Amino acid sequence: MEQYTNFAKVYDLFMDNVPYDKWIEQIKDILHKENIFDGLICDLGCGTGTITEGLSNIGYDMIGIDNSYDMLDIAMEKKYASGNDILYLCQDMREFELYGTVRAVISRCDSLNYIQSLSELKEVFSLVNNYLDPKGVFIFDMNTIHKYQDILGENTFAEVREQASFIWENTYDIEERINEYDLNLFIRLEDDTYKRFEERHVQRAYTFDEIVSAIESSKMSLERYMDADTYGEISENTERILFIAREKGK
């Protein structure tokens, strides 16, 4: 089963609890501290383009990359509605290509957890480094082992809306640190009936040291990190870590 096909139709509906405005403001603050007030920014794993649009609205020239045509269809609808000049590319982040370098790369909402091996994560980070301007920054988050093992793993979540409903079942392999999401979607059609769709999503949890090793192997330097929800120090209860890495000279 492909990921983010039918789910794309209702993705924004079920993500309305995500503090995108807060994230966009935080990204802007980080960029400003790095003296990046304008120029090209790449949103890696951009999904339906909510963050991409937000950064475009405050003056950045945006490129959005995602491997789901369906998610990018929604992003394009937003682009036409806003009139923002955003370039969207349907590419796998493990082998993405840009036409030149960018001042920063961002990747939020645990997109990088979809990379299922450390060697592939290192490949992604190497590509990021390759396309960063000298001393450019990489801002990304990743879910923690704690989140998969203690919050998501072996649990089932469900939500009912008028337009759509879902049942989300999680299976977590502690040894492999792989979490499988079995997603059953019930989407309302024009004739007021509901149609069932199924998707399977697979993500991997990485240790903090593994993520640091991926940054260092790509020739970037880790500048700082924080709890992505509290913006404070990370702890055993941290569910998502926000990292800021820098290109340090190719």
UniProtKB/TrEMBL annotation:
GO MF terms held by the record: methyltransferase activity
Single Gene Ontology BP annotation: methylation
InterPro entries documented for this protein: Methyltransf_25, SAM-dependent_MTases_sf
Short name of one Pfam family: Methyltransf_25
Organism encoding this protein: Lachnoanaerobaculum umeaense
Protein name, as recorded: Class I SAM-dependent methyltransferase
Residue spans crossing the bilayer: none
Keyword presence, Hydrolase: no
Keywords: Methyltransferase, Transferase
SUPFAM superfamilies (alphabetical): S-adenosyl-L-methionine-dependent methyltransferases (SSF53335)
Keyword flag Methyltransferase: yes
Higher taxonomy: Bacteria, Bacillati, Bacillota, Clostridia, Lachnospirales
